[in-house]
Amino acid sequence: MRRQSSMKHPPSKTAPRARTAHLIIVGCAVACGWGLALFSTPQNAHQIIEGLFASNYKDGAWQRSLFGFFGHLTSRIKMRVTALSALGLCAGVFAQSSAVVDQYVAKESPIAKAGLLANIGSKGSRSAGAKAGVVIASPSTVDPDYLYTWTRDAALVYKSIIDQYIRGEDNTLRANIDDYVGAQTILQQVSNPSGTVLTGGLGEPKFKISLDAFTDGWGRPQRDGPALRSTALITYANWLIAQSNSTHVVQKLWPVIKLDLDYVANKWNSSGFDLWEEISSASYFTSAVQHRALREGVTLAQKIGQTGVVAGWTTQADNVLCFMQSYWNPTRGFMTSNTLGGRSGIDANTALASIHTFDPEAGCDAATFQPCSDKALSSLKVYVDSFRSIYGINKGIAANGAVATGRYSEDVYYNGNPWYLTTFVVAEQLYDALIVWKAQGSLTVTSTSLAFFKQFVPSITAGTYASTSSTYTTLVAAIRAHADDFVAINAKYTPADGSLAEQYTRDTGAPLSAKHLTWSYASALTAFTARKGITNGSWGAKNVKVPAGQCQSNQGPVVKATFNVVATTVFGENIFLTGSIDALKNWSPDNAIALSAAGYPTWSVTVDVPASTNFEYKFIRKFNGAVTWESDPNRQVATPASGSFNVNVSWR
Ligand SMILES: *[C@@H]1O[C@H](CO)[C@@H](O)[C@H](O)[C@H]1NC(C)=O
Ligand SMILES: *[C@@H]1O[C@H](CO)[C@@H](O)[C@H](O)[C@H]1NC(C)=O
Ligand SMILES: *[C@@H]1O[C@H](CO)[C@@H](O)[C@H](O)[C@H]1NC(C)=O
Ligand SMILES: CC(=O)N[C@H]1CO[C@H](CO)[C@@H](O)[C@@H]1O
Questions:
Q1: Which of 362, 519, 533, 625 is deepest in the core (most CB within 10 A)?
Q2: Between β-strands 644-650 and 558-566, what pairing exists: parallel, antiparallel or unpaired?
Q3: Does 250 fall in a domain?
């Protein structure tokens, strides 16, 4: 999900697509007026939704006619606008468009659920060849080939299935969930290019659907998978314990959870690839889901008497929570997604983190980036706004209206497009926020979230608004409607059969990239559930405290590595070392580690590197500012569990 990232060094550069920014800003009232005119009668709404499902994406004819329709309406709308206050008009319109979303949810829910189950082996109708409990990312085998299982996608999908089962919505899911536990128990033990189960293999992002290792180049490791898998399994474990089935938890689930969370506790402070598999650095989504997993892991351990892990995991959870605060960009008011990578850092990564670490009992806590926190709302606005001018299909939408959103504005994968799952995530964060405001009977606007709330009430000021106030009522109605409008955007670009691909084309809205993306279906289902006001349940975010003082790092166990390379050089030329881990500066030629020429022509350096870890590296030459890399392939090494080791090689 996924620019295929075969990490050769120096990396090949992809030329970004040239873009012309077309920004057409129309007033809120005009855009709302369109909505009002369109959805003013139930009959109209019905026609529109039928039209959406029946639209033909090949010629885009329906869209042209829809925009033509808007054009004709403009003068009528302007007259309405003068007659109604902008706010009242918007609120009225929002209420109408929710009827359209009701119909979409009713039609799409069973399609999404069936689409999701079709992508799970061994019985799923689109997943031939997948072992029992294996989630395929998509049945697509070419352009792109997604017929693999990703630990992250599978865990997010199964979390939604486990939640459905626990809520009593579908009792037939039990065997399927047990299959997932079985498949993950096997996968953890599969040796792969990231290592064995004890040397980093748990960070391997994807496997074949036969449960064999995938051995081609890829952006590895990815450290969110073990955390997300733990969260899914812990949710199931807590339910089993409530059914007096602790025996099964202790015997079957706990060993898997413990391996994953020991990995998280040791490795959270090491770089890995982000959820889009493109940037190796620290990543907010990864940190946030790691924090959650460690906290609920501690609670589970206490429940079943596995107290040996409690102190260590709690310490690391505190450290992660401390580190999470450092991603905040106070100047522009958003949570930065990745610490490296040379992008703005404005990315769906952080909204995804917010919904997947939502704890309805934690209020609007900003330290854990709860959906209704001032930081998460501010960040959401910055994220949404970053797509207003770059996608053709967002043209003409008011500056405070819902738009199609993608992964991040600099995206060039398939030329960079809106994704179903990222647009659903915006809606879901807002539905989650509404759940908490309703439960607490008030809503607080701070200087940090002011710009977000001004989208709905331009005159709003910071303060707490009780549910009895008209400002609260107005805001909640407008935000609910705003959330619905994001769902309506996805509805508009959902084809007649209700299938959800990965993306839809930025200028026409035609579905694009992998068909039947399992994660797209899961994202629809969780957004729809949040829209109904259903939550499950707390993971313990309520009482956590950010440690005072400087954040503690955690390098995990290290060993001493001495690198000796025989290299003849000219005067003024020097040899450096860089590689795929933090200790070797993450492939950065600028920060590469200098070797000593004391034993010339052998150049040497000794570095502390993580124990029990596979990594890649190369030597580079620097001469008069020019960098020369060794030839491919990257060199590889597996480090021992303790002690020290030497690497003796010649420049190539
Ligand atoms: C506990 O759960 C497992 C997994 O679903 C099941 O196989 C087992 O029968 C359950 N045991 C009891 C006593 O309910
Ligand atoms: C490790 O943690 C320290 C302290 O929070 C932080 O400064 C550093 O950026 C972290 N590095 C990674 C890769 O997580
Ligand atoms: C590598 O070289 C060092 C010093 O040049 C030497 O002491 C060591 O034995 C060598 N190690 C191996 C495995 O060849
Ligand atoms: C296990 C659990 O937390 N179940 C809850 C899921 O959510 C519903 C509705 O919010 C509650 O009624 C359940 O108790």
A1: 519
A2: parallel
A3: no
